Amino acid sequence: MLPGFEKIIEERIKKAQKEGQFDDLPGYGKPLVFEDDCCVPEELRLAYKILKNADCLPPEIELKKEIIRTEDLLAGMEDTAEKYRTMKKLNFLIMKLNTIRNTAVMFEMPQKYAEKVVEHLGKNIPADKEK
């Protein structure tokens, strides 16, 4: 920085403080809250911050949010046909999320119909074959 430039900056900041130009800033008088971004690689931190400030989410997170919304919708549903269509949509979203992640099968999110199939099959077992 040029010599004397820092002094000019300091003087302008002090003048603005005296005039009260900083008094109406959000968070005035409160301690600064720093985000813990130690888990984010240093070279990605700025890009992540820009995306966050723009309310831009990665596709995986958007899908997870839609899955949660669909599960909540499904929980309050009583119409069987509508519930079936919503379950199909939910399973499609889960399948889409699992393909985006590109991880091992054991880490994939399970689809929601497996427990229903097991429950249904359990009802259809004749009484003499049950253990």
List the helices and strands and how they pair.
Blueprint: H1 5-19, H2 42-53, H3 59-75, H4 80-101, H5 114-123
Helix pairs in contact: 3-4
Structure description:
There is one protein chain. The protein is mainly alpha-helical and 131 residues long. It has a domain of 66 residues. It contains 5 helices and no strands. The chain is elongated. The model has no long low-confidence stretch (mean pLDDT 80).
First CA to last CA: what distance? Answer: 83 Å
Order of helices and strands: HHHHH
SS elements, strand count = 0
In this structure, how is the largest beta sheet organized?
Answer: none
| Overall mean pLDDT | 80
What Rg is obtained from the alpha carbons, in whole angstroms? 27 Å
